[in-house]
Amino acid sequence: MKANLKTISILLLALVAGFIASCTKDDNDNGKGTVKILLTDAPFPGDQVAEANITVDKIEIRMTGDSARFIVLSEEEKAFNLLDLRNGITAELAEVELESGVYNEIRLHIVDANVVLKDETASAFSLKIPSGTSSGLKIKIKNGLVVSDGSLSSVLLDFDVSQSFVVQGNPKSPKGITGFIFKPVIRAVVEAESGMIEGHVTAGENKVAAAVVEIYQGATLVTSAISDENGYYAAIGLPVGEYKVKCEVEGYNSFEAEDIAVVANGSATVDIVLQTASE
Q: pLDDT by residue (tens digit) across 170-187?
């Protein structure tokens, strides 16, 4: 099983009761809506990691047009163990009202990050927050987000942990993990323009837990997931398009499925049946 850190996702819901709008114009019809922010994790193999914690104390969103400015969504400090949020499970970050208009950027202020291992002493590593995050991480919303009076919209922030939590040392060596470097990498996609891939990982009649499932678009790794104790996995917030699903588990042949179509607000099922390497 691969031991590299995988992906976390942050779900930002702009709730404004009514219909879902896509970003096609810079309008402001003087209405207001509610913003709810949820946090979720597309998990990574945690055979040596007990906790991957972040603390957020401020979230803002940028309104475009003549009224261009950042609007504060929350200044409440909240800490999360990202390993608690797996396969579509979310945690609420904030809920506020937003003016109608077009929004194109999220600013996320992270004040603390640390990793706790599963060793006998529960070794903990406090991570240095990059100086560039002092004013908040700026994440462009792909194609933008329109909030209209009486609309319901959402943005998914996909936090790539494999790039954001860089392992120091060799997990397979006697010295093991010696630390982590924190380099946040996050993408944002409008949920109305995205879908998900889900399914189960099995081998014969057995459910396979902790199997790493990678989702590619072309040659690019978009996100990944890991199966739970029931063999279930889910990768959410995938932009509309076609994907390739890969799964590698030690002792089994590699699994690959191509041309998996993801549609807006839809779910594509890919059940992974593993064959032993001798078969």
A: 777 777 888 888 888 788
Cα(79)–Cα(53) distance, integer angstroms: 7
Written as one string, the DSSP assignment of 248-278 is --TTB--EEEEEEEE-TT-EEE--EE--BTT
DSSP letter string, 187-201:
EEEEGGGEEEEEEEE
Q: 3-class SS at 221? A: strand
Measure the CA–CA gap between 170 and 162, rounded to whole angstroms.
Answer: 15
CB 129, CB 111: distance < 8 Å: yes
The model carries a pTM of: 0.74
What element of type H or E holds 164? helix 161-164
- Give the separation between CA 42 and CA 187, rounded to whole angstroms: 14
Per-residue model confidence as pLDDT tens digits over 29-55: 567 766 555 555 443 445 677 888 899
Give phi and psi for 65, each to the nearest 5.
80, -160
Residue 134 burial by Cβ neighbours in a 10 Å radius (0-12, 13-18, 19+): exposed
d(CA 62, CA 74): 13
**Cβ–Cβ < 8 Å for 42, 10:** no
